[in-house]
Automatic annotation (TrEMBL), chain A:
Location(s) in or outside the cell: Cell membrane; Membrane
Record-level GO cellular component terms: plasma membrane
Keywords of the record: Membrane, Transmembrane, Transmembrane helix, Transport
Organism annotation: Alicyclobacillus ferrooxydans
Transmembrane segments: 12-34, 72-91, 103-124, 136-159, 180-199, 245-263
Similarity section: Belongs to the binding-protein-dependent transport system permease family.
Membrane topology of this protein: Multi-pass membrane protein
UniProt xrefs under InterPro entries: MetI-like, MetI-like_sf
ABC transmembrane type-1 domain segment(s): 68-258
Protein name: ABC transporter permease
BP terms from Gene Ontology: transmembrane transport
Pfam family, one: BPD_transp_1
Highest rank taxon of the organism: Bacteria
UniProtKB/TrEMBL annotation, chain C:
Protein's UniProt keywords contain Cell membrane: yes
Membrane association type: Multi-pass membrane protein
PANTHER family to which the protein is assigned, alphabetical: ABC TRANSPORTER PERMEASE PROTEIN
Domain ABC transmembrane type-1: 89-318
Principal subcellular localisation of the protein: membrane
Top-level division of the source organism's lineage: Bacteria
Compartments, record wording: Cell membrane
Entry keywords, A to Z: Cell membrane, Membrane, Transmembrane, Transmembrane helix, Transport
Name assigned to this protein: Sugar ABC transporter permease
A matching Pfam family: BPD_transp_1
Gene Ontology CC terms: plasma membrane
Length: 273, 447, 327
């Protein structure tokens, strides 16, 4: 079926080499996380942890665990809301163009280029005014807003590829604005949703700047805890690496679960050649 | 700043609705005048301001490491024992030399949303800037009430006093001009810690000929070389001129600055070449392992030597003032102040916490765990380890000076200095460096 | 050759609406209505903030005292005269270009590999995507160790008998080193290290985008082409690549936005570097604003940064929109 560009053996050799190269830093992350703090050092960074120490891991878990739930609430709610918003925007902008719709598209897109560090002062003021400072919904709102441009971009460009004939035939079948969205756009853009959700979840989960600026404990996301346990002066590398590993697991699970939906177009049969 | 609120009123309103809709957040009582940390949790509106045993207290610092967070907890424990009704929020934020913490703190201060009390360095840096901006409340009456005016040396109080008003409570004392050395390496080559630059270069030559890095250096954080430079400056021009430079009384085109910078560049030739990739603790590690012989570092290095590297003070490692700086103490002191925006319960709670911070029991519990010394004159040396005792002895008799890297000077000047330093160590262009300092001092007045 | 991609697009509802039905349709109202929440939110959190930043950049607010008096273009003059900001501009150009190229090419390559109906697809996909899940701060630390010239990956190069190992981010060389303003113009070799780390982190997402794009290409297109007797390579260039154009647009814009936000990674990995060889405007802005408390100058850097991005991105976006209409 698929174009066999590569000979299968060469294909796997190349894949394995790339995977190995990609995993070298992860390997270093893991062995450093399993060392005792005093065994971590540049000159012996490649050495296998001897003895294997789980003190870093358990210390990391203790401190990361309480904030893990905050991050889950935050990342899940923000991801769900903003992917839906993005899909709705993308649909409107890709398939129902009106006078000025490209201007609105630009207006939305440019939002992703704002340097976040420069927004902190007015951001804190506004959140404080509306009573959302130091709340998880407030932080979620920030992520939702700054996620809109990217989500709109991803969905608009996915939808742009869907042939107009499909929409026309769906309309003839009696579907309105939302009918077309539900029956044509959504099923066809499942991989688009996967990519969008992967992006947004990762962004929200790994954000440090907003988390540290607009929340206090106990409302802080896990990234703040990670940076904090590493310390300001005496950085405990093993704890930093262990907690990074722990905190990356939920994201990895999201990748694995969502990755299953990297499937070929579900409506493939309906495109006329 | 004032115009901000009105102009955005309408927009903010719609966002408030949006926010509530989107995030599923039920209520927000919109009470933005109560400056304290937790708008969602301030439900106990009973205004029993007098007792200071209600409401909440947000403590902002960059003490998140193992030792320092345990140490901070001592203060919090003592406070909670006295005021069990107050909800304490320990809003510590880590970051190399407090960089993240500073960003969050200045954003919140400038946005008019200060924490209850916060950590800052004594001196003419951020503290003075905040005082000048009218963001801080003077603490003279608190000092009088607690009798602190005689409990801290005047030399230290000078660093937190502006126009006769005291603005902060010092909780610890650290020293920046310390030369750490590996005793075994020094003994092996019959060396003594250098007290002059000439002796430093003689020692360095011996060490270099034996394949040992004379001076371990880190510069990952971009401030470590500046510490070395400022110590060389102090050792070259002496206390009086240094003090005048730091307070803007003498221009930076002084020949002493050029001379010191040349000496500094010469010292750089005796360092490890990969300093730009190392964190300060990794440079200490080179000394601990005997790969390097000396290291110029603040006295937080002793925490690394004793705790992480497991070395014995005065046996495995030793210390001395950096060359030419005997009798002078480059002081880095963490202090806490009272934001002027606080009112009512928040203010009472913060004041009560400051009382704990300045207390002798509080400081003992804090500093012994943190590895620093209490700045109080009545602190008992026997509570501290060998290094702490020697530091305390110097602190009580030495002259105190400010350091440019850690909150000692106008922050704008410090940033310009570090930028100029980054250029200097690659370009080796001293005259360019000096003129950069001059213009930096013009744009960011030092007094 | 199959032309369905091209022919269907011109018959899309867009054309239908514009030409045959001048009156406002209910669908258009829905479209506008659904866009309103996003427009309001972005209006406040992006455009009001941009306005605010631009306003601050013309004031004297260069300490904690919020001095909102007009300062003319002095903040802009100051940053453009500074050695650091000039270095930042040079670095940003090279970083952005190579970062985007690296991620796009590697991402597309990996996507094609993964799309070959391979065994353990999920494993490989996750391995390539995983770097994105690791916090930028930890990524920075790990890569600063890996690319430390004396202890990192150079040990492997040594083992292969390579004598002149690269200095990575400690290199201070700039090629070709032409004198421009007060800085040396050219590509700072130390940037290679930062590029490796950031491409490692982001190319997985480019792969995911391309993979989703490949999976959205209807099978029939390829089938038809195959019946036409198209060879694999020709199939790729004549069918697959054109179909991926909107994805590439997405990826370019997304990577451009990410390249401006490498702040955490850079901060943990190299900082500004010797003589600012690895400095980027975001880092400078952070130091200026929050270390130096020079809020107005920091705002000026942010404003320049935004304008520069717009200069690059707007023509690109207009170009892609034109292509969409014409096809």
């Amino acid at each position: 079926m698929r174009a066999r560009v590569f000979n299968r053996t060469i294909l796997y050799v190349v894949l394995v080499i790339f995977a190995a190269v990609f995993l070298i830093p992860v390997y270093l992350l893991i062995i450093t996380g399993l060392k005792s703090n005093s065994a971590v050092g540049l000159s012996h960074m490649w050495a296998w942890p001897n003895p294997l120490g789980f003190s870093g891991l358990s210390q990391a878990w203790q401190q990361v665990a309480p904030d893990m739930l905050n991050s889950v609430y935050l990342a899940v709610s923000a991801t769900v809301v903003v992917t839906i918003l993005g899909a709705i925007n993308g649909y409107a902008l890709a398939k129902w163009k009106f006078r000025g719709s490209n201007v609105i598209y630009f207006f939305i897109l440019l939002g992703m280029f704002i340097p976040y560090q420069s927004t902190l002062i007015p951001l804190i003021r506004i959140l404080d005014k509306v009573g959302l400072f130091d709340t998880i919904p407030g932080l979620a709102l920030v992520h939702i807003v700054y996620g809109i441009p990217m989500m709109t971009l991803i969905f608009r460009n996915f939808f742009a590829d869907i042939p107009g004939e499909l929409i026309e035939s769906a309309q003839i079948d009696g579907n309105g604005y939302w009918g077309v969205f539900r029956h044509i756009m959504l099923p066809l853009s499942i991989p688009g949703f996967v990519v969008a959700a992967i992006w947004e979840f990762t962004q929200v989960w790994n954000d440090f700047l907003f988390g540290v600026a607009v929340t206090d404990p106990p409302n802080q996301p896990v990234t703040v805890a990670i940076v904090n346990i590493a310390g300001s002066q005496h950085i405990q590398w093993n704890v930093l690496m262990s907690s990074t590993l722990l905190a990356s697991l939920p994201t990895l699970i999201v990748y694995l679960v969502l990755g299953r939906y990297f499937v070929r177009g579900l409506l493939a049969g309906s495109v006329k050649g | 700043m004032k115009g901000f609120t009105k102009k955005t009123g309408v927009a903010v309103l719609s966002v408030a609705t949006m926010g509530a809709l989107l995030a599923g957040c039920g209520t927000s009582n919109g009470n933005s005048t109560s400056g304290s940390g937790n708008s969602a949790n301030t439900t106990n509106s009973t205004t029993s301001t007098g007792t200071g045993n209600s409401g909440s207290l947000e403590i902002f610092s960059w003490w998140t490491g193992v030792a320092s967070s345990k140490a901070l907890q001592q203060f919090i424990n003592q406070y909670e024992k006295q005021y069990p009704g107050v909800k304490v929020v320990n809003a510590a934020v880590a970051g190399g030399a407090g960089s993240n913490a500073k960003a969050v703190l200045s954003s919140r201060m400038e946005a008019g949303k200060p924490p209850g009390t916060f950590q800052v360095h004594a001196g003419n840096g951020s503290l003075l800037s905040w005082v000048q901006a009218g963001d801080m409340t003077p603490l003279n009456s608190l000092y009088k009430q607690m009798g602190w005016n005689t409990k801290f040396p005047q030399s230290l109080l000078n660093l937190v006093t502006f126009n006769g008003k005291i603005y902060a409570v010092p909780v610890d004392m650290q020293r920046d001009n310390v030369l750490w050395y590996n005793k075994k390496v020094f003994a092996k080559y019959n060396l003594t810690p250098p007290t002059t630059f000439n002796q430093f270069f003689t020692d360095a030559q011996v060490l270099k000929s034996h394949g040992i890095t004379p001076l371990a250096l880190a510069n990952h954080g971009n401030w470590e070389t500046t510490i070395l430079w400022s110590d060389v400056l102090l050792g070259t021009v002496g206390y009086t001129k240094y003090d005048q430079l730091m307070s803007g009384k003498v221009g930076w085109n002084d020949p002493g600055v050029t001379q010191a910078t040349n000496t500094f560049l010469k010292m750089m030739q005796y360092t490890n070449s990969d300093y730009n990739s190392l964190h300060w603790a990794q440079a200490d590690g080179l000394v601990a392992q005997g790969k390097a012989a000396m290291n110029v570092q603040g006295d937080w290095a002793q925490g690394y030597f004793t705790t992480t590297a497991g070395l014995k003070p005065n046996v495995d490692f030793g210390w001395a003032p950096t060359p030419g700086t005997q009798g002078v103490f480059a002081a880095v002191s963490d202090v806490f102040g009272l934001p002027s925006k606080l009112t009512g319960t928040d203010k009472t709670n913060a004041e009560n916490f400051l009382k704990v911070l300045g207390s002798s029991e509080g400081q003992k519990a804090f500093n012994t765990l943190k590895g620093t010394i209490s700045p109080r004159l009545d602190a008992n040396p026997s509570d501290y380890n060998a290094y702490g005792q020697s530091a305390m002895a110097s602190y009580k008799k030495d002259k105190l000076v400010l350091t440019p890297t850690q909150g000692g000077l106008n922050p704008g000047f410090t940033t310009a200095l570090q930028n100029a330093m980054t250029q200097l160590i690659s370009s080796q262009n001293v005259s360019q460096f000096v003129s950069a300092l001059q213009s930096a001092a013009q744009q960011n007045p030092l007094s | 050759m199959n032309q369905s991609g091209q022919t269907t697009a011109s018959e899309s509802p867009v054309g239908v609406n514009k030409i045959r039905r001048p009156r406002v349709r209910v669908e258009t109202l829905w479209a506008i209505f659904t866009l309103i929440p996003s427009i309001i939110l972005l209006g406040v959190f992006v455009y009001y903030f941009i306005f605010w930043t631009g306003y601050v950049s013309f004031t004297k607010w260069n300490s904690f005292i919020q001095d909102m008096h007009f300062n003319g273009f002095r903040n802009y003059v100051a940053i453009f005269q500074s050695f650091r900001f000039q270095s930042d501009l040079r670095n940003m150009v090279f970083f952005t270009v190579f970062f985007m190229l690296g991620c796009l090419i590697l991402g597309l390559f990996l996507a094609i590999l993964v799309d070959q109906k391979i065994k353990a697809e999920g494993f490989f996909r996750s391995v390539f995507l995983y770097p994105m899940a690791i916090s930028a701060a930890a990524t920075g630390v790990i890569w600063s160790w890996l690319l430390n010239p004396t202890t990192g990956l150079n040990l492997i190069l040594h083992a292969f008998g390579i004598k002149h190992v690269p200095q990575w981010y400690l290199s201070t060389r700039i090629l070709p080193n032409v004198h421009i303003a007060s800085i040396s113009g050219g590509f700072p070799l130390a940037m290679i290290a930062v590029l490796i780390a950031s491409i490692w982190q982001w190319s997985g997402f480019a792969m995911a985008l391309y993979l989703a794009g490949l999976r959205a290409i209807p099978e029939e297109l390829k089938e038809a082409a195959r019946i036409d007797g198209a060879k694999a390579m020709r199939l790729f260039f004549s069918i697959t690549l054109p179909q991926l154009r909107p994805i590439t647009t997405t990826a370019v814009v997304m990577l451009m936005a990410s390249s401006l936000k490498v702040f955490d990674l850079l901060y943990a990995m190299t900082g500004p570097g010797a003589n600012f060889v690895t400095d980027l405007p975001a880092l400078n802005m952070f130091d200026t604003t929050f270390q130096g408390n020079e809020f107005a100058q920091g705002a000026a850097i942010a404003t320049v940064l935004l304008i520069l991005v717009l200069i690059f991105i707007i023509p690109y976006l207009i170009g892609t929109l034109r292509k969409e209409v014409s096809k």
